[in-house]
């Protein structure tokens, strides 16, 4: 079966599509991203409940389910807050109430989160044999978090993965049973947060959260006023991506991501040893393989960050040199009392062998040599990752028990996000 691979940037675009106008979300309509180049599937289910829209949910829930027949995947996308911040159903009926619940650790969801869970479970029930992906931003992230907490064991095994952005931490309002359910599929849930976004509320420890929490290495975003700046930051404005679509994470987040995997392995190994006195061959291979993949993934992420920052530094240095050349020409013109134009001064310098291109070009060539060396090292890391992936895939193909271990861990199989080199490195 064909397995669709998306980059981090594409996952973000899928989530952002929830804010498209209602003309997009019509049953049997084909939906795509990347300007129509990448198909997501066909709309099969829509619920609309926000203000001033003829809808079918009194709690403000806005969600869509898209069926991708090629991959046998249903993609559920929850929309974030819309409408009036003073009187809107999203805000007054959910955001403010959830904020108080999270800060005070009061149990129980709001009406919209409960409706999101019902919508999700219905999609699971109506699409037997399909894997499910869940996406959500802001209030949509909270909808997605609670929907996952509501899944039963069979549904959890069909959850291919979740990609949630800039939503407050719903873990604090869950019951003990719901917390256990989300812990069971923790590594299928990718929870992205911008530390500069005010909505990233309630995340005190990485353990007390839904999914693996990834803090984004973001920039501070501008705007016309304070409200505009806050909104721009919240709407992915500070996110930074490499040229091949990989999201840049903080160094601490990369380290915590590695620790999450290792913590999970310790828990699994401890449980297996208690029940069987020793690890089976398949379990030993699983533990060793996941340790290797955790380390390689962490190195890969760090190399992404290093490569991105090197490219940004190159642009900054070359731009500063370009400005400095212009300042030199301007200064010479002023010194000469304006008798020569800037073009005439540059022509005179060129006759002496000094041009903007030769000065900056030589420096640029040296930077590009360093870039090539860095790209070579990044490619070597990618090759190591591919070798680890190939080796594990071969073992999984030969061992049903091992395949089951990986399926319980992964957000979509052995060549999913834990092995993202193929999608993001080529």
What this model shows, in words?
By secondary structure, the protein is an alpha/beta fold. It contains 13 helices and eight strands. It has helices at residues 8-16, 89-104, 111-126, 139-149, 153-158, 176-184, 226-237, 251-276, 281-335, 342-351, 356-398, 400-409, 421-425; strands at residues 30-33, 38-47, 63-68, 73-78, 131-137, 159-165, 189-193, 212-215. The protein has an eight-stranded mixed beta sheet with strand order 1-2-3-4-5-6-7-8, with helices on both faces. The longest helix is centred in the C-terminal third of the chain and has 55 residues, at 281-335.
Secondary-structure element sequence?
Answer: HEEEEHHEHHEHEEHHHHHHH
- Coarse structural class: alpha/beta
Summed over residues and divided by their number, the pLDDT gives a mean of: 81
What coarse outline follows from CA principal-axis ratios? globular
Topology:
Elements: H1 8-16, E1 30-33, E2 38-47, E3 63-68, E4 73-78, H2 89-104, H3 111-126, E5 131-137, H4 139-149, H5 153-158, E6 159-165, H6 176-184, E7 189-193, E8 212-215, H7 226-237, H8 251-276, H9 281-335, H10 342-351, H11 356-398, H12 400-409, H13 421-425
Parallel strand pairs: 4-5, 5-6, 6-7, 7-8
Antiparallel strand pairs: 1-2, 2-3, 3-4
Keywords summarizing the entry:
globular, 54% helix, alpha/beta, 13 helices, 426 residues, eight-stranded mixed beta sheet
């Amino acid at each position: 079966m064909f397995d669709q691979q998306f980059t981090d940037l594409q996952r973000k675009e899928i989530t952002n599509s929830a804010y498209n106008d209602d003309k997009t979300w019509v049953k049997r309509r084909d939906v795509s991203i990347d300007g129509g180049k990448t198909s997501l599937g066909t709309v099969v289910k829509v619920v609309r409940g926000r203000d001033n829209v003829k809808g079918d949910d009194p709690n403000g829930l806005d969600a869509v389910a898209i069926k991708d027949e090629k991959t046998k995947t249903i993609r559920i996308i929850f929309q974030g807050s819309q409408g009036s911040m003073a009187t809107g159903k999203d805000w007054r009926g959910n955001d403010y109430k959830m904020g108080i619940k999270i800060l005070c650790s009061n149990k129980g969801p709001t009406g919209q989160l409960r409706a999101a869970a019902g919508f999700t479970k219905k999609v699971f029930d109506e699409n037997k044999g399909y894997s499910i992906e869940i996406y959500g931003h802001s209030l949509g992230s909270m909808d997605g978090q609670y929907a996952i907490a509501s899944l039963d064991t069979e549904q959890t095994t069909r959850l291919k993965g979740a990609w949630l952005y800039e939503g407050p931490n719903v873990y604090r309002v869950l019951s003990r049973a719901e917390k256990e359910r989300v812990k069971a599929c923790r590594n299928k849930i990718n929870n992205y947060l911008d530390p500069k976004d005010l909505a990233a509320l309630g995340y005190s420890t990485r353990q007390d959260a839904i999914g693996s929490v990834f803090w984004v290495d973001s920039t501070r975003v501008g705007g016309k006023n304070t409200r505009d700046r806050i909104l721009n930051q919240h709407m992915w404005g500070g996110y930074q991506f490499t040229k091949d679509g990989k999201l840049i994470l903080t160094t601490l987040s990369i380290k915590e991501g590695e620790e999450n995997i290792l913590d999970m392995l310790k828990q699994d190994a401890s449980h297996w040893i208690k029940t069987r006195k020793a690890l089976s061959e398949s379990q030993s291979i699983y533990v060793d393989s996941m340790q290797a993949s955790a380390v390689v993934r962490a190195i890969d992420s760090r190399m992404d960050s290093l490569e991105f920052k090197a490219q940004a530094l190159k642009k900054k240095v070359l731009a500063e040199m370009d400005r400095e050349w212009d300042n030199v020409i301007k200064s010479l013109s002023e010194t000469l009392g304006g008798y020569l134009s800037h073009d005439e001064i540059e022509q005179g310098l060129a006759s002496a062998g000094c041009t903007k291109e030769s000065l900056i070009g030589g420096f640029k060539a040296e930077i590009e040599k360093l870039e090539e060396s860095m790209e070579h090292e990044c490619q070597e890391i990618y090759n190591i990752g591919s070798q680890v992936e190939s080796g594990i895939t071969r073992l999984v193909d030969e061992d049903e028990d091992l395949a089951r271990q990986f399926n319980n861990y992964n957000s979509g199989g052995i060549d999913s996000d834990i092995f993202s080199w193929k999608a993001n490195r080529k």
